[in-house]
Amino acid sequence: MVTKLLLISDTHLPKRARVLPAAVWHAVDDADVVLHAGDWVDVALLDELQARAARLIGVAGNNDGPALWARLPEIARETIDGVRFAMIHETGSAAGREQRMDAAFPNTDVLVFGHSHIPWDSVAPSGMRLLNPGSPTDRRRQPVCTYVTAVIDTGVLVDVALLAVPPSA
Q1: Is 169 a member of any domain?
Q2: Which of 19, 128, 133, 139 keeps 20 to 30 A from 120, CA to CA?
Q3: Is residue 107 one of the residues assigned to a domain?
């Protein structure tokens, strides 16, 4: 069995963009599971994604208000087709991240996080994969806005791809 994933974070709607880019909505429609690592900012996006995504897993971030925190956890843990995921908005400094996250998230195969708007893909000493999809709406110091797609195939995470959001027409 193959499960298609979409990883997004730091959408900051409607502050950094008015809407989620069309390419990201296409990825939502194509995904079996959407993981959003926080900083939604407006509960309207949560409602839209819950209505449109086949399955949505999300966490709240530091820019999310009480309405989002009331509906989303700080940390999410889910096993998806045999792959153990954890998700949190912020992991702290890049220096020593892998070792800190190993201690904080034992028995985790993939940790999804956000906050920095900087894409990240590394492997901790335990073998846990750390993924930050960047932001599809606010590139900050990055050359482009980004999101991540991946596939779980027979209990293994494969085909992890960092994708640039195409410029709007």
Answers
A1: no
A2: 19
A3: yes
